[in-house]
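Aggregate trends can hide what the representation actually does to any particular protein. For completeness, the protein is quoted in full, as a sequence line and a line of structure tokens.
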Amino acid sequence: MIGQDIIDRFAALLGSKGVTSDQDDLAPWVNDWRGRYHGAAAAMLSPASTREVAAAVALAAELGVALVPQGGNTSMVGGATPPADGSALILSLRRMNHIRSLSPDDNLAVCEAGVILSVLHDAAQAAGRRFPLSLGAKGSATIGGLVSTNAGGTQVLRHGTMRALVEGIEAVLPDGSIFDGLDALRKDNRGYDIKQLLIGAEGTLGVVTAASLRLVPAIAVRAVGWVGVDSPAQALRLLRLTEERLGNSVEGFEVIADDTLGFVLGHVPGTRSPIETRTPWHVLVEVDHADLSDPGPADRLEEALTDAFEQGIAVDAAIAVNEAQAEAFWRIRESLSESERAQGPALQYDISVPVAKMPAFMIEAAAAAQSRFPGTTASSFGHLGDGNVHFHVRAPKGTSDGPAWIAAQGQAINGFVHDAVVAAGGSISAEHGIGQMKRAELGRLASPARIAALRAIKTAFDPRGLFNPGKLIPLPEEG
């Protein structure tokens, strides 16, 4: 455990607002938000500036104290939870919550790590721009966490993940030095791209303190449609058809199994299916235009869907007639995870496979899991266009002790699903990261070359292993 003398050293450095050691105050931050991982920490450090972060990191390096960087603590894989033995301090970036600049002319926002995603959305909108990344935790997820996990979301099809949206980074490295890479240079051939190493590193190589982020024009007009189809294969045909007809104005394309839609309709009061026909699968599609002089996106989407009916791709469809209805369509999508959890214990997987293989995977993997583990049900939903779906295996009906079921079956089901993903040429983590949840599986399934490279990079940046210990990098016995 870390003693009071060490905490006092940090308090002298950061002041009374910069150190929290009351265990009641720490309680929300030592556990992951899903309640699966429980850690311990003698204190949480909360620096208010990049220089304070650098000073705290330098002191931690001097004292040999491990640090766990933390933003909104919304990690889905236990990536921001401190070790259970209390051997690390939490390094919170939440006080660093300023938007340093926002330029419509440059289409750029420079945000500190603690800026909440929804706050950036509002600021960009007020300037006639938008930051084109959104997810369910937008009201609590922070920019530093989104960068550190290479977050995705519902707009990746058109705009890419955080890797594509980050133009520059400022970070503190494990020795306390400051990497100043905020300049948004489109051309920069000074060797290794440190920025890209830090994106998706989950705080194991450096602490992201600020980022320069790409903005895009605000949406002038949009069309949102809901389409019933018979299979994921037909959904993929619909995606390609809409892309042919509408080009890169297709911003969102989500596929949902009918049973998953049923969970939402039964769980969320006031929701109703956008179409009258209950088809085996559903597609939510959004088309966005930034220029009001463009042809109406609703008309163009209607034309594309007419072609889809003529080609036997679509069974039924509806286009939102106003913004309220468009939001209602999207509310169904945003309620899927909550409604799934309400059904009872389940194992959730954030996976990706090549887009062309995704339709078959969604059907075959679900059937294989249900056959291999009798009584379970399995289905998936998500971002078909970028090959990322959330695949869930639910416990048999009537299972009352979820933790006991996961303890008994979890490892076998995890291995089964991940083996199927790798066999399809996919990844066991599409957008949530590795954290501690998937570290052992990464070690089991990744190639020796990948594991060796990860360890070499980690050792080069953090030879003493003081940054976010126990996350991302497989232990020697794990790979």
